[in-house]
Amino acid sequence: MSEKFGIADDICARMLDWRHDIHANPETAFQEHRTARLVADALMEMQIPVHRGLGGTGVVGTLKNGEGPTIALRADMDALDLQELGDRAHKSTRTGKMHGCGHDGHTTMLLGAAVQLARHRPFRGTVHFVFQPAEENEGGGKKMVEEGLFKLFPADAVYGMHNIPNIPRGKFAIRTGIATAFLDTFEIVVTGSGCHAATPEKGIDSILVSADLVSALQGIVSRRIGAMDAAVVSVTQIHGGDTWNVVPEIVTLRGTVRTLDAGIQDQVEAAMKQVCTGVAQTHGARIDLRYMRGYPGVINTPAETDDAAASAAANLVGVEQVQTDIKPAMGSEDFAFMLQERPGAYICIGAGESANDPPLHNPYYDFNDAILPLGAAYWVELVKQQLPAA
Asked: How far is C-alpha 200 from the geometric centre of its chain's CA atoms?
């Protein structure tokens, strides 16, 4: 099959225009008003009924063609708080915001599939096109579910897709079971006793306490979690002090925890509480831990992974181009909240051209336009596989 994978020429051209337009006008969590309007307008142009405002700025289009099963296809719309450094004609026009994760491409591929399916209607049943806000850290998927996504738009299964630059273009990758990590965040406030830097013995040095605490936290993964169990504890912020010659009273640490199992997640949280208590007693300081459960892990259900996502991809590119045993990613995805409500699967589409391609969340990253037709064709193939032929 050609590089357009059966997607009409005019749809491919429109996808390119949409993608560059969205990229040039990035909008971050729950601010995707312009993007949502572009999506809704494109769907309504194809006479696909549209629901707006779910989850704040979410858009759901529903294409029904007779009686039959119902599936939901999801794409994320939000950008990152990141300054784009690449030089391209469609570069971000908004300071400090860019599509550094490819959600502009995800939105475009699902839109292209919607147009192709609306034009030909090769199925019997219903397809919900779910355009989700705020995937990056803010839990837009959870908000859509809480506001009744699957009550308003019942679905037998739900599917998601993400581009991956370190997987070669033309390949897909997926796994059954846990696919992405559970994501938790934490904030630790260390309270000592401030004093002059020349006489630290007269106070309780919150900087020293924090340094010991960071080291002790790293010992959780290396010494308290089994070697075959995956966990990552990362301190990503340390805030304290205002001048050169004063030991501050308070230091605040923040960071993330990633695990691949709910039981390990519980172990890490318990260990962090114990470490904070012990370090506080050692130094005579006060340490307050606020541990916040975030995104659950993406867990692909077996039937939807094996019989739907992997097979649909194999029909397009050949079974040898679909890897079904990839390792779980320690990144996280709020598509997990949708999978807690419905069976489904989350697949990776390769976007790489070389080993030097910028990774996701890099200021030089740009979505690979060459995979737009393949991504749209994957959605079309999945619908044709999951719903009866018209």
From this structure: 45
